[in-house]
Every structure is written in C-alpha cells, then in structure tokens.
Amino acid sequence: VDLVVEVAHPCVAQEHGEDILGHADFMLGSPTALADPVTERRLREAATRGGHTLYVPRGALWGCEDISRMDQQGTLAALKVTMTKSPQSFRAQGWLRERVAAAIASGTRTVLYEGPLRPLCPLVPNNVNTMAAAAVAAPGLGFDGVTACLVADPSVPDWHVVEVEVTSTGDKGRCLSVTSTRRNPAGLGAVTGSATLGSFWSSLQGGCCPPQC
C-alpha cells in the first residue's frame, strides 16, 4: 500500500495513525485530530521514523495555497473561518450539543461558537475539518491563532457556506484583506457538501494543502 486515505473520524488517526505511517503515506481527511497536540506530535514523529508523509487535503478551504504562501512569507496577520450550516448538519458533543438543540428549537440563526479553533475541534470533529485544514496551512497561527466561527442557520437547509477572511500584516495602518465565500450544495442534515468529493480527489492527485505537513 502506498497511501491510506482516512475519511471517517479523527479517532482513526488517533488510534491507528502511527501504525499506518510505519507502512505508507497517510492522508488525514479528518485533520481535527491534529488539534490534540499529543496526537499531532505522535503522527509527525511516526512519519519521520517510517520515512512516510502525512498529508492534509484542502477540503472546502478556498485559497489554501495563498494562505500557506502568506504564512511562509510572514505576511499573514489573521485568519478567520466562518462555517454556516443547517442545525441538523452538526454532530456536536459536550456542551455544544445543548446549543445545537436550542438552535433547532428556536428556528433562528444562532452563532454556536466564536473563538480560537483548538477547543472547538473535539466538540464537532466531523464538522470543522475545513477550519483544521486552515490551521495546518497556516502553522504560524495554528489551532490557537486561527479564529473559528460556527453558525447554525435553518435558512440554508441544503447548503454549507464557508467564509474565509484573510488579513495581512500592514504598513501605516493599511493592509491587504481578502474575503471569500464558498457555497457548497449539501443534502439536508449532511455533514459534507457535494462538491467536497471533487476537492478530495484533487488532493489525492497531488494537490494537498499543504503538500506536506
């Protein structure tokens, strides 16, 4: 086997990632696993020991290569990713489960979370892999520096909307800022949008984000 692709749950990487990297390259379709520093360290060390590569697909992250390039050049000052989905699309755990239930009951747009990405990942590990890909693409900010905003909105029952806000370092109070909005068709209650498959296939053909983490 040359490459193992995980598209199930971060527990696969947590429980089996080291063994996989001892024998093959590993594409981590659930990069929320890397929000756990111990898991990230173990996987990186296993990749080095085995002489294999740990890949992260770009998923629904628009502008991945530009974000990575800015981070490498030291010009990336801030990165915020807002994901808006139907309340039924979230597979929440812990305290966030109650907030999702309340959003479903109210039938109104609800900001479920806004803040650093790292603590959000274990609460909705299936839903915020795009945010995790952003943290991997921008290691200068990482899981603690990337800002995550998760929104439940019943008015978009069959769409997943991802907004990426990039801000560069500035000079004399002026700086580059770019905002992109990606609307991905999705089935009612689906965790992943329909266009994500094509993005994963592109990454599998050699366009991972970043090429090596």
TrEMBL record:
Residues 1-57 form the Aspartate/homoserine dehydrogenase NAD-binding domain. InterPro entries: Asp/hSer_DH_NAD-bd, Asp_DH. Pfam families: Asp_DH_C, NAD_binding_3. Residues 108-196 form the Aspartate dehydrogenase domain. One of its GO terms (biological process) is NAD+ biosynthetic process. GO terms for molecular function: aspartate dehydrogenase [NAD(P)+] activity; NADP binding. This is Aspartate dehydrogenase domain-containing protein.
